[in-house]
Amino acid sequence: MLSCDNPPPVTVILDPGDDLVHTRAALAVHAPESGRLTVHPTPGTDSVLTLAYGVLAALDKPVPVPGYRQLDTAPAWTLAAAWILATRTSHLMLLRAHFLTPHRLGALLQLRDRTGLRLALVCHTRHVPAPVGRALAGVAHHVAEATALLPAAEPPTATPPEPAKRRPLANRWLNLPALTTLTAFDSATRPCQCTAPVAEDRDFFAPVLPALTEAEVAHRLHRATAHPHLAAQLATAVFTAASTTQLDTAHVRDLAPDACTITLHDDGLRQGCMTHHVPAWARPLLLAAAFVWHIASGTGGPLFTDPLGSNGLPYLTDFAERFKLRPPQPPRLKRRKGSRAPTKPPETIWPCSPAHYALSWAMQEPDLMYGCPHPPPHTRRTIDAYKRGWPPPYFGQRSLRRSR
């Protein structure tokens, strides 16, 4: 079990007047991107699970979390701890703490022990409430006044707030060439614990995303789900152009401690086992998936599986479609001039591309691209040739290949 040996003391903030300025100041420090969370518990409930959902919502994760038993609180708190560790969240401030039940206080203290959070409990009372005092009886803590720790925030002005930063690609389908090779027609390989070379040393280069597309993909995946293994698996497919067979070989031990690299194995079926550099936007996703394993079992396992035993979650392709991520699709049929019939949205096609396979038998498989464009070249030689304007003889549509 993952735990912090010496978590920081708990801070109990007393606000007997329940002043609006102090509440506004507490909400103003909420900045998940800077590692600070402020949670305002749902009024009228004393549910431990609802409080865990409040922490996940403060981390910009959708709640409720599907896949677990309805009243099971352990998975939600485990996921909250994993995301806190992965995003380097350091402060958690909880309002209305004087309404906390012993069970909810115990869950918060366990979260602090797991993650090393600086926990601050805002009690709108003159003295420390008895349940809070009993819960903190054996815990290092100190008491402070709200006037000292929650200074008045800037009062609201008459000017309208600045509009949220516009995302040019929001709500649009993103066709990602790296997902062209996601669907595979081969079975999983044997377990491998090799020391794989870097992908560039094997002359393999995954498609590079434009900066605007990369930012939109990161935005969607970080808010897509509270299940880190799903978001991490799809993110890895995006920056490695790996197939589901290769993704299934990744274990927790294959991820670097700081998630700067990940090793995928394929037993020589494609380009061989390779170590890929993890872009900065994807590292928290992979770290969270690894932390779930460390917290839930204390050991490693397949990185892109859930040790908490979730059920009924979508397949990876369905998960990608839910957030409008897909491989490039076949050209659309032109609408006949003068036709008023509404066009039915086409279903997403997931091709099976043999582009990255190294064995000769893979090239003899029937064409399963279903009209989708082939992936871009993936080796230095083919990329250079592609830039010069002439494709190599083994790239592109089979019918267009030149004879060797």
Question: What is the compact description of this entry?
Answer:
Residues 326-347 are annotated as: Disordered. The protein is of the alpha/beta class.
Structure description:
It is a single chain. This protein is an alpha/beta fold. Helix content is 30%, strand content 9%. It has two domains: 10-149, 3-Layer(aba) Sandwich (Rossmann fold), CATH 3.40.50; 174-330 and 348-388, no CATH class. It has helices at residues 20-28, 48-58, 74-86, 102-115, 130-135, 146-149, 211-222, 228-240, 244-247, 283-296, 316-322, 360-363, 380-388, and strands at 10-14, 36-39, 91-94, 118-123, 141-145, 174-175, 261-264, 274-277, 325-326. The chain has a five-stranded parallel β-sheet with strand order 2-3-4-1-5, with helices on both faces. The longest helix has 14 residues, at 102-115. The chain is elongated.
The SS-based structural class is alpha/beta
Please bin the fraction of helical residues. 25-40%
Rounded Rg: 25 Å
What are the secondary-structure elements, in order, as H or E? Answer: EHEHHEHEHEHEHHHEEHHEHH
Number of helical stretches of at least 4 residues? 13
The tally of strands reads: 9
End-to-end separation in angstroms reads: 58 Å
Strand order of the largest sheet: 2-3-4-1-5
Proportion of residues in extended strands: 5-15%
Largest sheet: 5 strands, parallel
Number of domains: 2
Gross morphology: elongated
Low-pLDDT segments: 393-404
Mean pLDDT: 87
Write the layout of secondary structure elements.
Layout (H helix, E strand, L loop, with lengths): L9 E5 L5 H9 L7 E4 L8 H11 L15 H13 L4 E4 L7 H14 L2 E6 L6 H6 L5 E5 H4 L24 E2 L35 H12 L5 H13 L3 H4 L13 E4 L9 E4 L5 H14 L19 H7 L2 E2 L33 H4 L16 H9 L16
Parallel strand pairs: 1-4, 1-5, 2-3, 3-4, 6-9
Antiparallel strand pairs: 7-8
Helix pairs in contact: 2-3, 3-4, 3-10, 7-8, 8-10
